[in-house]
TrEMBL record:
Stored Pfam families: Glyoxalase_4
Protein name from the UniProt record: Methylmalonyl-CoA epimerase
Keywords: Metal-binding
Domain of life according to the entry: Bacteria
Entries under PROSITE patterns matching the protein: VOC
GO biological process: L-methylmalonyl-CoA metabolic process
Database matches in PANTHER family: METHYLMALONYL-COA EPIMERASE, METHYLMALONYL-COA EPIMERASE, MITOCHONDRIAL
Residue ranges occupied by any VOC domain in the UniProt entry: 3-131
């Protein structure tokens, strides 16, 4: 793993949360994007070399809607940048981690993504991200 790619925060109201983070960080979101396959709309903020992704559900069946219903708004996941997501999935699976996506899928911000189940990572959802070239 290369670095923390971003921290994902589940929010109910993307517009209100984006305004809050604009004030907090002193800069607007650099990108807002819908990922229809996941039922989510995202807003990305840069803060130095770090990024924050706000995630809001676009339908009540989306993973973000279910997360907020169960746990409320707050930190949803930590994403790590990797150079070879397929090799990293295989390595982590061999180490005993529970992989939710054995085949990477297209995510937000021009990335291939895969997730590790929180039950194998001390209750923290981990996302692996590889830039799509």
């Amino acid at each position: 793993m290369l670095k923390i790619e971003h921290i994902g925060i589940a929010v109910q109201d993307l517009e209100a949360s984006s305004l809050l983070f604009e004030k907090l960080l002193g800069t607007p979101a650099y990108k807002t994007e819908e990922v229809a396959s996941e039922g989510v709309i995202t807003s990305f903020f840069a803060n130095g070399p770090n990024k924050i992704e706000l995630l809001a559900a676009t339908n009540p069946e989306s993973p973000i809607a279910k997360f907020i219903q169960k746990k409320g708004e707050g930190m949803h996941h930590i994403a790590f940048a990797v150079t070879d997501i397929v090799a990293e999935i295989a390595r982590l699976k061999a180490e005993g981690f529970v992989v939710l996506n054995e085949t990477p899928k297209i995510g937000a911000d021009n990335k291939l993504v895969a997730f590790l189940h929180p039950k194998s990572t001390q209750s923290v959802l981990i996302e692996l991200c590889q830039d799509i070239k």
